[in-house]
Fold this protein.
Amino acid sequence: MKRPTNTIDFDERPFLAIWEVTQACDLACVHCRASAQPERHPLELSTDEGKRLIDQIAALDVPVFVLTGGDPIKRPDLFELIEHARSVGVRVSLTPSATPLLTRDVVFRLRDAGLARMAVSLDGASAETHDAFRGMSGSFARTLNAVQWANEAGLPVQINTTFSRRNMAEMDAIAALVEQLKIALWSVFFLVPTGRGKLADLLSADEFEQVFARIHRLSKTASFDIKTTEAQHYRRYLMQQRVAERKASAAPYTVPEKAADTIGRAPRGLNDGKGFVFISHTGEVFPSGFLPESGGNLRRQTLATIYRESPVFRELRDTSKLEGKCGACEFKEICGGSRARAYALTGNPLAEEPCCNYIPRGYVMPPPAVKHASGLHVLQGA
């Protein structure tokens, strides 16, 4: 029997586990954290190793388990892995790439294997923008086809969108397109400049707030849920808005009936390494796919041991170690800032969130020369 998600002790088990089953992918996305390549790595976790990982996910009773890539469809044992997960009581979500490999037949086979949700990426309101983002012509059309096929199969759909300077101007148009689709969740990602992601594409702190405002407005009318990824300070923004609305005695708005979201929503405070764990294609266990500091490898230790005892994970869960504004912030227990983005820009995963414009109460900003002394530590790929 599944335990309620609001009782999860993040020191003991994650709420969300993501397994990068392969880094092989036929796309060449401009923001890809993995710098994915067409061919599979020879040291990928084997089918048996993957099943043992799934058994550990079941033992930890992790509420949300996602298979990602690269492109998971590049693994010929994908259906077998999903079937095994279903047999041990693990509900699986999948993030396939919109390539010619993602066919209607594959979508129905995924459903029959026991997939609980399929997530596809939509990074532009037009084929021109999206396909340029993804590095393959036809990806936009395939994404829309995949949503339609999933709807036909009765498979819940999630749309993932990564916002950066390349597509922020199309945000309203993307949101309007998403509203036309039958989905359960819109997951809005905020760029972390790692892998192929470039620092020049990163939104400023003020632009983050602008996106937050648009998401918040849309959440009041949308027929689907909206969540953010690598924008932990959206939780702070939401709390501020709710307080402001109460003070203004604003008339309560009626929340529209949402599409059924059977996967579950994360409790407050979820962050890189804190309720979140990422397993690489070779078994390395990271706090996040965007934070490449390994806590250990599954071929040497169990997932539970790495998550609970690794110094990397333990330090990230200790909010008393947060530095700068994040360490002084009254919202640090529900937010904590993106540890991955702090690492990407400073080399220090405990540094303050670089893209937050909020100044904590009573906090005195250090002189600019001191604040920026560490310089940039952006991890760039090919």
About this structure: DSSP finds 13 helices and 13 strands in the chain. The CA atoms of residues 326 and 332 lie 6 Å apart. The radius of gyration is 20 Å.
